[in-house]
């Protein structure tokens, strides 16, 4: 029987999960932490999940997404440098510009974001910056300016009376009252709103020494592992693994994209305008390096197992091999290595800043009978002339985050409801199923 040590040993061991997964730092792990992890099934399970998530992030992130994830990761490390420290308006000010940037969204509570939740003055300043219409580059410049000196166009730069402190629940001081806030439900954190007197008293108590060494170790770990390979979505789940809370409450577009990219063989049926008969079928095999498409009576088959080969056939003519241009072959290869048109945007970073992502209630759509969940991504079509047109991508995902069905809809100002333009039904095949489908379709 595998032994399980007390909770304090697990909490101590969690600080070294990343160290054990990194060959450069593995030797630095203390013997007591190494021995505990080796004998604790709970720590081993946590490490296994974390290793899988990091491997998925490395395998599926493109260069643009990696740059964005790296920026978010570094920003999070700066936020958590304020762990268990008093945060004032002056402390939060350098972060306002980055928090206003839609490209650098932070979706978990941090020592800085909870201060803005509690401080009206800082939240008003953030709203002013968000409504200014500044570009990403301009917001970066503003952030640097605000870190060095007060911004001239922002009134009343002095601190308010609001001082907040963010701690993990296991580290919280029971002598200090904590605020109850539904926004932090499910997160193992305490948010304290302190007066100046309470702040001075708590700092005096801390000077005697408490949990500071462990907190410093945590901060060092966060900074050390702020690498491009750790995607923003993985940070959220990793945060949950390390601190004993549940993972993200819902599936997000990046998880769906990764699930699509992991699939070896996919069959997609595309129907439009409420028609039952598909206008197009596609078979994509990443394991066999094959792409096949059927439109009407014409079938095209790209085979990259050796030299690029394109075969075209129809019901009225026998199959024939067509001369392949490099440009056409490259386009077919990109198709195989893409999200396959299942998503409205190939990269999550291309999702518009005003887009809204939410789960569809079960009473609004029949998604629960097959164990699926339905989500909507809604955004404004900026290219549409005249009054704004809303676009909606509704996706049905299974328990493995794989999309089973996707609908692309549009609603113009004259429409009462969204009009479905086309619907995709997705199947996931084995290599043998894929070979059989190719043989049958080629008849």
Briefly characterize the structure.
The protein has helices at 7-14, 17-21, 31-39, 41-60, 63-79, 89-92, 96-99, 111-118, 120-130, 136-148, 196-207, 212-224, 232-243, 253-262, 326-336, 431-441; strands at residues 86-87, 163-168, 189-194, 265-272, 280-285, 290-295, 298-303, 309-314, 320-322, 356-359, 373-380, 390-397, 403-411, 419-428. By secondary structure, it is an alpha+beta fold. The strands form two sheets. The protein has an eleven-stranded antiparallel β-sheet, sandwiched between helices. A three-stranded antiparallel β-sheet has the order 1-2-3.
Spatial strand sequence of the major β-sheet: 9-8-7-6-5-4-14-13-12-11-10
Tell me the CATH architecture of the largest domain: Clam
CATH topology of the largest domain: the name is: outer membrane lipoprotein receptor (LolB), chain A
Class by alpha and beta content: alpha+beta
Number of helical elements: 16
Number of domains: 2
Radius of gyration: 26 Å
Strand content: 15-25%
Poorly predicted runs: 1-6, 150-157, 171-177, 205-249
| Through-space gap between termini | 58 Å
Largest sheet geometry: 11 strands, antiparallel
Kindly state the mean pLDDT as a whole number? 75
Number of strands: 14
Dominant shape: globular
Helicity range:
25-40%
